[in-house]
Write a structure and sequence with these properties.
Layout (H helix, E strand, L loop, with lengths): L1 H31 L2 H28 L2 H4 L5 H9 L24 H31 L17 H22 L12 H18 L5 H9 L2 H11 L6 H20 L8 H28 L6 H23 L1 H11 L1 H28 L1 H23 L5 H37 L1
Helix pairs in contact: 2-12, 5-14, 5-15, 6-7, 6-12, 6-14, 7-11, 7-12, 8-10, 8-15, 9-11, 10-16, 12-14, 13-14, 14-15, 15-16
Protein name: Adenosine 3'-phospho 5'-phosphosulfate transporter 1
InterPro entries: EmrE-like, SCL35B1-4/HUT1
Family: Belongs to the nucleotide-sugar transporter family. SLC35B subfamily.
């Protein structure tokens, strides 16, 4: 009996070790499935690049490197930290050219430009939206309807795929075609880049918790945070009708969200998670468009803006992916599923084309007009998603959608009337 006990001890210890290891493994896997954990891990990865960069920029500014520095690295450091102007604040209006609002062009030419921008944005992002829902909500590799297949889970890799192609396209464009002399310090692009990749991550991640029509209509309400960010970042003022239409949009979105049936997402925690992620998307995206709007005060082209933002986006995302070990896992998923590889590349192409139209639209018409164009696109996206993927919309929800787009059309109408009034007042002022 004693000999049996001594022989059993190693087996018991080994069994205990395996059970503890299994519990730890399941705990880690459980944490990995929590979106907040993935979000914090991503932020930690970005901070390993942001913090050293901030310390270096502070050091170069504190030591007055622009006047005392020299050597091979001097042009690179000057471009990244100081730009072509030695003494400008973060968003100072001094020594920077104002954005071209198209006042010198004819009204017909401006209308044609607006139609071109709107059409390009619609085609690029409608295709992108349909593919986005397919990638994030459907499985790959299932040969029969009974098989579950394998789902792709890493939203950050899709963000990287989108940004690397956009960086390549904008880099080639800047090389082949003449661009304005670049004046903005390169590090200023990192602010828009960080908020852009965070908003894109939230956009992909939210589809795991809510339906695509819910996400699309919630995006329509970002006119409100865009206005708030405009007051904070750009010190803009708005008319009373802009606040009125913003409230109407909020009412319509609330009607749609509250009337949605919870059959596909019965969990309260899951629904709450989706709402929180959507709020994160709206906040980050509102900051991005207003920051880019301010950066255009420097004399730069939309392609230069695209290159600068995507350069930092690639740096942030690839660094975080490599630190987490997720980069090669995602590549392995692509090799296992050729259909996913095709969808990911097509997503990137649509995103790159869409970004060209985004920067050009913001450059020509500003962040508010761009937001209205993108919001109009949401109505078509909802119809497409309901048709392709069978999402149901209740009567109250449909009325909420109608209220949102009625508010948007009122917004466009009031803006056009206000501009017409200003144009008619200018000749009178000149006569006086």
């Amino acid at each position: 009996m004693p000999s049996f006990s001594w022989r059993a001890w190693p087996a018991l210890v080994l069994l205990l070790f395996h059970s503890v290891a299994a519990e730890e493994s399941s705990l880690l896997e459980g944490w990995h499935e929590v979106w907040l954990f993935r979000f914090l891990v991503n932020v930690l990865g970005y901070s390993t690049i942001i913090i050293p960069g901030y310390l270096l920029i502070s050091y170069f500014k504190r030591t007055n490197y622009l006047e005392t520095g020299s050597g091979i690295c001097y042009p690179v450091i000057k471009t990244c930290v100081f730009g072509s102007e030695a003494k400008t604040g973060l968003l100072d209006d001094v020594s920077v050219a104002p954005r071209n609002e198209g006042d010198s062009g004819s009204s017909v030419r401006q209308i044609l430009k607006l139609i071109f921008c709107a059409a390009g944005l619609q085609v690029s992002y409608l295709t992108w939206g349909v593919l986005q829902e397919r990638v994030m909500t459907r499985s790959y590799g299932a040969t029969t309807p009974e098989e579950e297949g394998e789902r792709f889970k890493d939203s950050q890799f899709l963000v990287f795929m989108n940004r690397i192609l956009a960086l390549t396209v904008s880099g080639l464009w800047c090389t082949l075609f003449k661009q304005p002399r670049h004046g903005a310090p390169m590090y200023k692009y990192s602010f828009a880049s960080l908020s852009n990749i965070m908003s894109s991550w939230c956009q992909y991640e939210a589809l795991k918790y809510i339906s695509f029509p819910t996400q699309v209509l919630a995006k329509a309400s970002k006119v409100i945070p865009v206005m708030l960010m405009g007051k904070i970042v750009s010190h803009k003022s708005y008319e009373y009708w802009e606040y009125f239409t913003a409230v109407l949009i909020s009412v319509g979105v609330s009607m749609f969200l509250l009337s949605s049936t919870p059959s596909k997402h019965p969990s309260t925690v899951t629904t709450f998670s989706g709402v929180i992620i959507l709020i994160g998307y709206i906040v980050f995206d509102s900051f991005t468009s207003n920051w880019q709007d301010n950066l255009f005060k420097y004399k730069m082209s939309s392609v230069q803006m695209m290159f600068g933002v995507n350069l930092f986006s690639c740096l942030f995302t690839v660094g975080s992916l490599l630190e987490q070990g997720a980069f090669f896992d995602s590549l392995a998923f692509m090799t296992r599923h050729s259909e996913f590889a095709f969808h990911a590349v097509l997503l990137s192409v649509c995103s790159a084309c869409g970004q060209l139209f985004i920067f050009y639209t913001i450059n020509q018409f500003g962040a508010a007009v761009f937001t209205i164009i993108m919001t109009l696109r949401q109505a078509i996206a909802i119809l497409l998603s309901c048709f392709l993927y069978g999402h149901a919309v209740t009567i109250v929800g449909g009325f909420g959608v109608a209220v949102v787009f009625l508010a948007l059309f009122l917004r466009v109408y009031a803006r056009s009337r206000m501009k017409a009034g200003r144009r008619s007042a200018q000749p009178l002022a000149q006569k006086v």
